[in-house]
């Protein structure tokens, strides 16, 4: 092949023993064959200009071929539309002015039919969706921007409606819970009122009994009050009397402290006078022995420290 010319023969063993390299080489060979055919068609009467055969050149030429095919297809489509349009017009020199609008409408319908027939499946679906959307949105001349704005408005309205619905449901749940709580509180209050009636009845009877007993004791209280008033009326105290009573009380307190101090010496003695006297005599004898021992120790100390006179 032409695109394999000039390749080193050392690459042949790799393509023979590697399936992946062989597939790549076969694909490149087919692509170069297509490119060579297309270039030959572009230069029918002369030799094509030389160019470098590499992967980038192959890719660029394949893209160019695809673009050329697409352009040719569009040109054929436009030519067919023009041909069908002019074939259906059938102009006549003696048409009246009243037939003009009908002819224009027929031409428009014919053009629309041709366009619809030539549309692919995706185009028909898109056109149908756009027309349905325009009818639903009540737009006479639909444009993509206008329909997009309508869709956004509808989506925002749907979102606001959903938000309001969710808030309404939340409010409904809250109201329902409050109703349940209110019914519970009402039942508790009614039950409490029924119990309070019984309790108040018992309490009323008890209070009446207490009032009756206290009423019976009123004369006794009045008598005691009268006696207290008479006794307090006979006693008349002055500030001087109160001061004297206070001084006497303080003197008694001092005397009590003095007596407690004296008694504290005998606090360890028995409460029986005879036993206390016996124990006191024992303490006195012990004191005398301790005194004798002290005097003897002192005398011995004096004798030991006094020097002996030599004769």
TrEMBL record:
Gene Ontology biological-process annotations:
cell division; spindle assembly
Q: Does the keyword Cell division apply?
A: yes
Gene Ontology terms, cellular component aspect?
cytosol; HAUS complex; microtubule; spindle
Provide the protein's localization.
Cytoplasm, Cytoskeleton, Spindle
Q: Return the protein name.
A: HAUS augmin-like complex subunit 4
Keywords from the UniProt entry: Cell cycle, Cell division, Coiled coil, Cytoplasm, Cytoskeleton, Microtubule, Mitosis
Q: Which organism is it from?
A: Cordyceps javanica
> Which family, according to the similarity comment?
Belongs to the HAUS1 family.
Supply the InterPro entries for this chain.
Answer: HAUS1 (IPR026243)
């Amino acid at each position: 092949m032409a695109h394999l010319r000039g390749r080193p023969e050392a690459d042949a063993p790799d393509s023979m023993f590697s399936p992946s390299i062989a597939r790549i080489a076969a694909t490149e060979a087919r692509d170069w064959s297509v490119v060579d055919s297309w270039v030959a068609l572009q230069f029918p009467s002369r030799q094509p200009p030389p160019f470098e055969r590499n992967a980038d050149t192959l890719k660029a030429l394949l893209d160019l071929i695809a673009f050329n095919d697409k352009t040719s297809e569009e040109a054929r489509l436009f030519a067919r539309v023009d041909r069908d349009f002019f074939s259906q017009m059938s102009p006549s020199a003696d048409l009246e002015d009243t037939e003009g609008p009908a002819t224009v409408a027929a031409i428009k319908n014919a053009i629309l039919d041709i366009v619809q027939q030539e549309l692919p499946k995706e185009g028909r679906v898109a056109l149908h969706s756009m027309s349905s959307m325009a009818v639903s949105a009540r737009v006479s001349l639909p444009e993509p921007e206008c329909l997009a704005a309508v869709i956004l408005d509808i989506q925002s309205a749907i979102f606001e409606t959903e938000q309001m619905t969710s808030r309404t449901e939340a409010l409904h749940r809250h109201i329902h819970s409050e109703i349940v709580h209110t019914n519970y509180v009402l039942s508790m209050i009614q039950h409490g009122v029924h119990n309070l009636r019984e309790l108040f009845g018992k309490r009323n009877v008890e209070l009446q009994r207490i009032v009756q007993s206290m009423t019976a004791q009123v004369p006794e209280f009045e008598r005691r009050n009268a006696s207290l008033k008479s006794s307090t009326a006979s006693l008349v105290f002055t500030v001087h009397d109160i001061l004297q009573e206070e001084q006497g009380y303080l003197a008694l307190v001092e005397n009590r402290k003095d007596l407690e101090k004296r008694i504290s010496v005998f606090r360890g003695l028995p409460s029986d006078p005879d036993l206390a006297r016996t124990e006191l005599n024992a303490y006195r004898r012990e004191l005398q022995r301790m005194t004798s021992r002290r005097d003897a120790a002192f005398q011995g100390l004096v004798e030991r420290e006094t020097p002996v006179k030599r004769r």
